[in-house]
Design brief:
Layout lengths: L4 E5 L7 H13 L1 H5 L2 E5 L5 H7 L5 E4 L16 H7 L1 E6 L2 H5 L4 H14 L2 E6 L9 H13 L5 H4 L3 E4 L15 H19 L1 H4 L4 E3 L5 H8 L6 E4 L6 H10 L2
Parallel strand pairs: 1-2, 1-8, 2-3, 3-4, 4-5, 5-6, 6-7, 7-8
Helix pairs in contact: 1-12, 6-7, 7-9, 11-12
């Protein structure tokens, strides 16, 4: 049986190297828990070296994105060569916060191709801003997925993971977190889209993660019997004790 997947997205936190090291020391103390999962940490680029050195043996380094270009000399761009040399194994693509800043489905599709060619596993994020009773959000998800995965061949799709992160369920925007029933329905719908694109046998093997206000208090109920393979965790991944509790809910 394949391991559950847990990804910690530190975003642009913490504010100092000392804080980052403190988080990593806490994670290492519970390394036995994280070894039972396929664990990734996606820190700001300035912490790559510290994270890469301190998570060896129980987690992998991930990036919060990828450059728009495969090679060349560009100011302000972290090259694929640098990412690979630090040991980046996975890249978060199409995160809702990147999309809010202008990243389009077409650009996500381009970065997916760059990731596949470079040997970095793409985690493609999808999710609607609003959840409506008329089902319009479902068509939005369908278009978003099809465009973001445009050009991905059947033989390549096995290297990709999908993260469902509904914007309305994230942080202060959410009056209530998504229900297990609602998450189950969305996982089924996402697999239906993947089946239409790649066939049922392939679709069933693609890991689907959930990201959206995942906390120790709701992690177990959002994981059990919903069909998700794991979580993409934001804020709570900066607290090693809470991240550990989320990890334990997947075991």
């Amino acid at each position: 049986m394949k391991k559950p997947i847990l990804i910690g997205n530190w975003k642009n936190k913490p504010g100092s190297l000392g804080e980052a090291r403190s988080i990593l020391i806490g994670l290492r103390k519970k390394s036995a828990v994280f070894k039972k999962l396929d664990t990734y940490i996606a820190p700001p680029e300035v912490y790559y070296e510290s994270v890469s050195e301190r998570v060896k043996g129980f987690a992998h380094l991930a990036s919060q994105g990828l450059p728009r270009v495969e090679k060349g000399t560009y100011t302000g761009v972290i090259s694929l060569e640098v990412l690979r040399n630090f040991g980046v194994r996975l890249a978060i693509l199409g995160h809702s916060e990147e999309r809010a800043l202008g990243e389009t489905d077409a650009l996500v599709a381009k970065k997916v191709q760059i990731a596949l060619k470079s040997g970095i596993k793409p985690l493609v994020c999808i999710g609607e801003r609003e959840h409506d009773t008329d089902g319009n959000h479902l068509e939005f998800i369908r278009r978003q997925m099809k465009t973001s995965l445009e050009g991905v061949k059947k033989k390549e799709i096995a290297e990709i993971m999908i993260a469902y992160e509904p914007v309305w369920a994230i942080g202060k925007r959410a009056k209530d977190a998504i229900t297990p029933e609602g998450l189950t329905e969305m996982v089924i719908f996402i697999r239906r889209i993947l089946t239409d694109m790649y066939g049922r046998d392939i679709a069933e093997k693609i890991p689907i993660l959930y990201g959206g206000s995942v906390e120790p208090r709701n992690a177990e109920i959002l994981y059990k019997d919903t069909g998700v393979r794991g979580f993409l965790v934001g804020h709570e991944s900066l607290n090693h004790k809470e991240f550990e509790q989320i990890a334990e809910s997947l075991i």
